[in-house]
Structures are given as structure tokens and as C-alpha cells.
Automatic annotation (TrEMBL):
This is FAM86 N-terminal domain-containing protein. It comes from Cyphellophora europaea (strain CBS 101466). GO terms for cellular component: cytoplasm. Pfam families: Methyltransf_16. One of its GO terms (molecular function) is S-adenosylmethionine-dependent methyltransferase activity.
Length: 368
């Protein structure tokens, strides 16, 4: 595929706006239009999100402008039919879910099977639904982990506030962890998280299938279940039980089944990750305490938190809590520069909103 078309394809699949639509002189060629039909615009028009419809319109307009006055070239029948049958308005599109594809930041000539996340791309603000879309801080942390794969390779990974599951799924698909446990505190988010983990099952070859668990920060039962479970891999089907609950879904219903193998209690998490989870002042204390409890359970555990700086007071309140005497976490800023959007090759995200990654570890008080 032409380089500009390959870049457009990746950005369009991740629903980046604008996606860098190639010039009309590239798009008008019949073989390029065939690629557009087969790879970009291959669903029935009734299934198009507002974003997809907008890009289809822009593409056709660009082709039309490029071929004006040339009787031998035309917009393909397929694209014209799609355009003519697009629904006119979609009042609820902002809350509806759409399938978003993400590939790691590698050269456009690399043919990478993307991970696919079903998410409500246009959700904004706070509330119990924020986890139904993937946020820029997660893309930033995934880019960083992709640049430092040894942080994840062979490691037992725990994610807090996993939302759509993008970060956990990304680690399991591309970075070869030993195990991944994705947690969240909200029931609707857990259902969609579980579905996204399943949706990407074909990616977990040679690495364990991520496990989904409920962990509401500050909930003592959730926390002790996670600490006892630690970095254990998913067991296929019910197995030895000691009262530990694992989350699964059946037709959108939440079920809890016992699935702990006895050996799991000896296997702590190596790394805890979290993205865009430091935005609610009321939740930050509980989050800091949760991180501290997990880190105290294994002082060698690394913690990486990617934070979008929306409200500096909330963020500094969280950091103060973390390195205060109760939590005892040592906090450092990770130096990581992401190229600007027009130089990125995957995990596209804007760098206008400041995002920082913090590395933490438990630092036991010195004995005097
Ligand atoms: C802004 S979203 C980020 C989701 C994901 N990490 C990402 O970056 O795409 C915040 C996530 O934290 C979860 N969350 C918020 N408060 C929580 C709490 N008290 N306990 C556990 N999870 C919580 C939400 O359900 C949501 O999934």
C-alpha cells in the first residue's frame, strides 16, 4: 500500500480526526479506490459512525475534485452508492460504541494485526462511564511501554482503572507479559472490559489470556482478593477454589466464579500500571492507599501511572498522598518524549494536553 494510504488507514482505523486523507491525485486511481472499498469502506452504510461518514464524504469530494473535467475517470460505483445511502442524522452517535483499531508505533511498512476495542469514542467528562472509551494517557503509557518492552516482558502485570482494557490488551498482545490482570471499579465498565479482552483472544498466543477482576479503590474485600490472587494466570474453567471470585460475563450479566490456583499466592505482581485515573479528588486518596497497600505486599513492585494534567491541584494532591508518611511511595517523573501527531506511526494522540508518567515504588521508613 502507498505510504500515505497506509498512514491514512491507521489513523482512520483509530478514528483520528483529521486522519491525513491523501491528495486527490492519489485517491482517484482505480486501484486505490479498490483499496478504499475493500479496507476502509467495506461495511453497509447503515453501520457508519458519524466519523466514518464524515471521512467517506471528504474522500469522495477529494476524488471528485481531482477528476473534474476528465471523462475517463470516475468515483467508483461502490463509494457513490455508500455515499447515497448514508443515514442523514445520528442524534445518539456520541454515546454509541464503535470499533477502534490500534497498532503499536512502528513503521508504516510493517503489517501489524491491530487490537480492536469497542468503545464510546466521544464520551467526555467524568462519571461512571469514563471507562467506556480509551484515553490519551493510556496511549501515551502504551507508547512508553512499547519503547521499553523489558518493563513488561515476562512480568506479572496488574492494571488499575483499566476502562476499555486497551492498555492490558496492548501489553498481552504485543509485549509478552507472563500474566495480565485488568481491574476496574464500575460494573458497566467491567462488562465492556471483559468483552474487549475476549474480542482480542486471537492475540494472546504464547502469553496468558488477561484476567478481569473488580477492584474498587478503597474496597477492602476487593483489595485483599487482589493481593491474595497476585499475578496468577487465568485458569481455563473452574479449578481449585479457596473462596476467591473471578469476574466473567454471560450475555452481559456479571458472574463470579472461583478460579484460584493454590500456587498463585506465592506469585506477586511485578508491575502495576494505570492511565488517567487521577482526575477525581475524592477517589485519589483511596487510589494512593490502594497503590501503597499493593506495593507494601511486594516492595519490588514497580508502579507506572500516566496522568493527564487537567487540574494541577488534584494531581498534586494525589502525589502528596502517595509520598506522604501513610503511603510511603517514592515518586519520580519518567522522562519520555512523544513525537508530534504528524510524526507518529501508531497509537496516535495529540500532545497538546500535558501528560506525565510517574514511576513509584514503596520506600520503607528508615529505622533510626
Ligand atoms: C478516565 S478512565 C481511564 C480508563 C483507562 N485507564 C484509559 O486510560 O483509557 C478512569 C477509569 O477509572 C475507573 N475508576 C474511577 N474511579 C474508580 C474507583 N474508585 N475504583 C476503581 N476504578 C475507578 C473508571 O471506571 C474508569 O475506567
Amino acid at each position: 500500500m502507498d505510504q500515505s494510504l497506509a498512514e491514512f488507514y491507521r489513523k482512520y482505523s483509530q478514528q483520528i480526526d483529521p486522519p491525513g486523507i491523501p491528495s486527490g491525485s492519489v485517491l482517484r486511481h482505480p486501484d486505490v479506490q479498490l483499496t478504499l472499498e475493500r479496507r476502509f469502506f467495506n461495511q453497509p452504510a447503515s453501520e457508519y459512525s458519524a466519523y466514518q461518514a464524515k471521512i467517506l464524504r471528504a474522500v469522495v469530494e477529494r476524488i471528485q475534485q481531482a477528476i473534474e473535467g476528465n471523462d475517463e475517470e470516475e468515483v467508483s460505483d461502490h463509494l457513490m452508492t455508500l455515499l447515497a445511502t448514508l443515514p442523514h442524522s445520528r442524534p445518539t452517535v456520541d454515546l454509541s460504541k464503535t470499533l477502534v483499531s490500534y497498532v503499536p508505533p512502528v513503521g508504516f511498512d510493517a503489517d501489524i494485526d491491530p487490537i480492536e476495542i469497542l468503545e464510546a469514542k466521544k464520551i467526555i467528562g467524568s462519571g461512571p462511564n469514563t471507562g467506556l472509551r480509551t484515553w490519551e494517557a493510556a496511549l501515551r503509557l502504551a507508547s512508553y511501554l512499547h519503547s521499553q518492552p523489558e518493563l513488561i516482558r515476562g512480568k506479572r502485570v496488574l492494571e488499575l482503572g483499566a476502562g476499555t482494557g486497551f492498555l492490558s490488551i496492548f501489553c498481552a498482545a504485543y509485549l509478552q507479559p507472563e500474566t495480565v490482570t485488568a481491574t476496574d471499579g464500575h460494573e458497566d465498565v467491567l462488562v465492556s472490559l471483559e468483552e474487549n479482552v475476549e474480542r482480542n483472544s486471537h492475540h494472546y498466543q504464547g502469553t496468558s489470556h488477561p484476567t478481569v477482576q473488580r477492584l474498587y479503590w478503597g474496597d477492602e474485600d476487593d483489595l485483599s482478593r487482589i493481593i491474595r490472587r497476585r499475578g496468577d494466570a487465568t485458569q481455563p474453567g473452574p479449578s481449585a477454589s479457596d473462596g476467591i471470585d473471578e469476574l466473567s460475563t454471560t450475555q452481559g450479566q456479571m458472574n463470579y466464579k472461583n478460579q484460584l490456583s493454590p500456587s498463585s499466592t506465592e506469585r506477586p505482581y511485578d508491575i502495576i500500571i494505570g492511565a488517567d485515573i487521577t482526575y477525581e479528588p475524592e477517589a485519589c486518596k483511596a487510589l494512593a492507599e490502594t497503590l501503597s497497600r499493593l506495593a507494601k505486599a511486594n516492595p519490588y513492585t514497580d508502579i507506572l501511572i500516566s496522568a493527564t494534567q487537567r487540574n494541577l491541584q488534584t494531581l498534586s494532591g494525589f502525589l502528596d498522598e502517595c509520598h506522604g508518611p501513610d503511603c510511603g511511595l517514592r515518586v519520580e517523573v519518567v522522562k519520555y518524549d512523544v513525537p508530534p501527531l504528524n510524526k507518529q506511526t501508531g497509537l496516535f494522540h495529540n500532545i497538546v494536553s500535558p501528560i506525565q508518567i510517574f514511576a513509584m515504588r514503596y520506600s520503607p521508613p528508615e529505622i533510626s
